[in-house]
Amino acid sequence: MAGFGEYDKYDALGLGELVTKGEVSAEELLEEGIARTEKVNSRINAVIRPMYELARARAKESFEGPFAGVPFLLKDLIASFAGVEMTNGSRFYRGFVPREDSEYVKRFKQAGLNIFGKTNTPEFGITPSTEPDYTGASRNPWDPLRSPGGSSGGAAAAVAAGIVPMASASDGGGSIRIPAACCGLFGIKPTRGRVPSGPDQADGWFNFIAEHVVSRTVRDSAVMLDCLQGDYPGQVLRIAPPDKSYASAIARKPKKLKIAYSTDPALGDSLHSDCREGVLQTVKLLEELGHKCEEVRLPLNKEDFIYAYTVLVCAEMSATLMEGEKILGRKGTSSDFEPRTWALMKLGRSFHGGDVAAAFRYMNMFSRQWMTYFQPYDCLLTSTLGTPPIEVGGLRPTPSELVQLKALSHLPIGFIAKQKDFVLKAGHRVYQYCSQTMPANVTGQPSMSVPLHWNAQNLPIGMMFTGRFGEEDVLLNLASQLEEAKPWADKRPGIYAGV
Asked: CB of 191 within 8 A of CB of 445?
């Protein structure tokens, strides 16, 4: 072919089929992806590290797998690509170049994907808005004044803007589902242990993190999960493989499900009316499709959960600093990190081992009680977020909070650990925003955001379904049914017209 002008008509699987059939070349697809990046990236800051020449060399080779020759973007966090800088959104890691691929990246390559760039992420992925000081804020293609979410915000912005049909993402507190909700995409966080994250890095955040993708279509995510799932030698956390492929799960006849739903604010103080309306409209759609829906109250003690989660994340941030110092061979200082990150690292150092163990025990007990409560249901429906997509800067520390954070970073160890009230208040806006997503990270259950609603301002309002442990097939089957009943793939933000 002399050129390829039908890129928008296909999802990732569709593009891969064209390459396999010889109807388009991998080189043509890559150049289209690069051209789109160059055209729109200045407005959304999604791609922060181009890998064009590496990808051009790869495009000349042969491809195998369901996504043969499809252009793809890799989140610049956790996932190592040999020979390419990985900064994790932090100036501290500037110049760090991994020597080998993560297992996750190897499986992307085995699936046929051609990685041509890395996407923006907040510093160490700790916020649900992608606004790192080091590489700048990403913006939402639906409204550039708003955030595409985080921590996979760059990935979601790139997909929503039409650069690629699918991009890599990871989720430790909602970081697949939050950006999917913000950008009108589909995103499923797999069950804990389903997708390997090693062997080059430890399984961080007490195994809260799961890795996968954000995509325009359900089938792309399903087939990608088939490609990514499964153990590798030396993997510590192992779970039973699925009985059948996830591709077959979306093809089978839908079952009638018993679905719990809630409009509780969960970890927040309130649920925005747009999010509440989205849940109620989704219940109506589900009942029209023959499912049984039952309203429930969420079995959740907000303050206890937030405190335990914060203690664990701060402890992990302290460990992240220690690990980084070992890898890079130099000590980290406050000037190497954003003030919020440094304060969390200091706070993590201040907790006793017993504080961390108690928080972890609390989360284990929470998981047992939560999953027991929802065992009679096939899944739980809530809004993905507590509000519509937030404005860029909406979660950044205020001037007074910055003063507090800087003061905190200089307080004596031991004094900081007693500041429970500060811990609860410091993340209040974050927990109000992503009020629904974190329980599934703690329990390890599969959970997905489905782009079923847009509000009066034409902003996406994602709906979240959380399934039983190990039952991604049930969620994917439901998502496929919803996709057919209320299609979303042809919805495009205004910026899309520019590509």
From this structure: yes
- Kindly list the catalytic residues: 75, 151, 175
Give the whole-angstrom CA distance, residue 264 versus residue 303: 15
Cβ(189)–Cβ(445) under 8 Å? no
Residue 283 phi, psi (nearest 5): -60, -45
DSSP E strand boundaries for 202-295: 210-215, 258-261, 292-295
Mean pLDDT of the chain: 94
The Cα–Cα gap between 123 and 143 comes to 23
Provide, rounded to the nearest whole percent, the portion of the chain with pLDDT above 90: 84
Of 222, 309, 270, nearest to 11 (Cα)? 222
Residues 252-287 pLDDT 10s: 999 999 999 999 999 999 999 999 999 999 999 999
For 29, counting Cβ atoms within 10 Å of its Cβ (0-12 exposed, 13-18 middle, 19+ buried), the class is buried
The span from the CA of 196 to the CA of 79, in Å, is 11
Asked if 298 contacts 264 with a C-beta cutoff of 8 angstroms, the reply is yes
| DSSP conformational letter for 391 | B
CA–centroid distance for 310 within its chain: 19
Distance CA 239, CA 221 (A): 20
Give 286-298 pLDDT, tens digit per residue: 999 999 999 999 9
The CA distance from 25 to 225, in Å, is 25
- Residue 381's contacts (CB-CB under 8 Å, 6 or more residues apart) are 259, 260, 261, 262, 279, 282, 283, 286, 293, 463, 464, 465
